[in-house]
């Protein structure tokens, strides 16, 4: 064990914060940690928006269903960004195809997501807690318009950071046998005994944790997640098209 591993292995999302705001130095430190994360083709194809406007925070609270984010010590919006690259690139058929491609969309999303995790871990190393929020995509078009996101950008994640006012129990993860394989993919079946053991562990976790106790297994949780109405987020594809991402391979053109 070393301090880095201790931080990584003690991660838990924090959803209750004290009233203390992050200092400008803390904000700069988190952004630096994000910037030093690996970045696809060294293109640094993401932007970070600090959201301090209370009205915008309130809208994000509504969109995500997490009004508590308004009381966080700081809020970041992580944006996949090929717009900056477009400004640096002379326009021709090849550069246009690249900038609008699925490949570059994914690269921006990878960059934004990896940068987000760097901020989470950096924050935790400073005693801060955070919650990553994919729920900004509950109303992607509204987020795009709220932050004036130009063509070739896309909101990826929100990140609420602050001084923790709770210490939830660690959520047990899947046994490694189910996620880490040697050389070949190992398919799972729903009645796998290792999965059954994990389901028992998750049931105990949900019974014993401090809040929102309930009867739950991992299998049931996944069934619930997969049973949500897919139309709820169908707008994502509309938003991607609006932002200029074609989801086409140039070979198809
Ligand atoms: C991509 C992504 C999106 C997430 N979106 C949300 C969210 O919208 N709201 C939320 O409360 N937590 C969100 N989370 C946090 C997860 O719920 C959390 O990481 C997971 O339940 C495991 O719990 P832990 O982080 O406490 O270990 C998100 C996490 C990730 C990685």
TrEMBL record:
Does Flavoprotein show up as a keyword for this record? Answer: yes
Q: What is this protein called?
A: NADPH-dependent oxidoreductase
Q: Which family does it belong to?
A: Belongs to the flavin oxidoreductase frp family.
> Which species is listed as the source?
Levilactobacillus suantsaiihabitans
Is the Oxidoreductase keyword given for this protein? yes
UniProt keywords (A-Z) are:
Flavoprotein, FMN, NADP, Oxidoreductase
Q: Where is the Nitroreductase domain?
A: 10-163
Q: Where are the transmembrane segments?
A: none
> One matching Pfam family, short form?
Nitroreductase
* InterPro entries registered for this protein in UniProt: Flavin_OxRdtase_Frp, Nitroreductase, Nitroreductase-like
Instruction: State the superkingdom.
Output: Bacteria
Among PANTHER family, the record links this protein to: NADPH-DEPENDENT OXIDOREDUCTASE, OXYGEN-INSENSITIVE NADPH NITROREDUCTASE
- What does the record give under GO molecular function? oxidoreductase activity
């Amino acid at each position: 064990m070393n301090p880095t591993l201790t931080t990584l292995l003690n991660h838990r999302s924090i959803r209750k914060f004290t009233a203390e705001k992050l200092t400008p130095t803390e904000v700069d430190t988190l952004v630096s940690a994000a910037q030093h994360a690996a970045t696809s083709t060294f293109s640094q194809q993401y932007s970070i928006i600090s959201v301090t406007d209370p009205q915008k925070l309130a809208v994000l609270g509504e969109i995500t269903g997490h009004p508590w984010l308004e009381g966080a010590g700081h809020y970041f919006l992580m944006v996949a960004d090929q717009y900056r690259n477009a400004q640096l690139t002379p326009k021709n058929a090849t550069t246009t195809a690249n900038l609008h491609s699925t490949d570059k969309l994914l690269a921006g999303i990878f960059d934004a997501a990896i940068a987000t995790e760097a901020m989470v871990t950096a924050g935790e190393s400073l005693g801060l807690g955070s919650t990553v929020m994919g729920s900004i995509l509950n109303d992607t078009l509204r987020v795009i318009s709220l932050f004036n996101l130009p063509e070739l950008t896309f909101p990826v994640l929100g990140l609420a950071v602050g001084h923790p006012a709770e210490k939830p129990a660690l959520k047990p993860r899947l046994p490694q046998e189910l996620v880490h394989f040697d050389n070949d993919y190992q398919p799972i079946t729903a009645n796998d005994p290792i999965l059954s053991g994990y389901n028992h562990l998750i049931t105990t976790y949900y019974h014993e944790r401090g809040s929102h106790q309930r009867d739950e297994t991992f299998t049931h949780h996944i069934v619930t997640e997969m049973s949500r109405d897919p139309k709820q987020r169908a707008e994502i594809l509309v938003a991607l098209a609006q932002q200029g991402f074609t989801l086409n391979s140039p070979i198809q053109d």
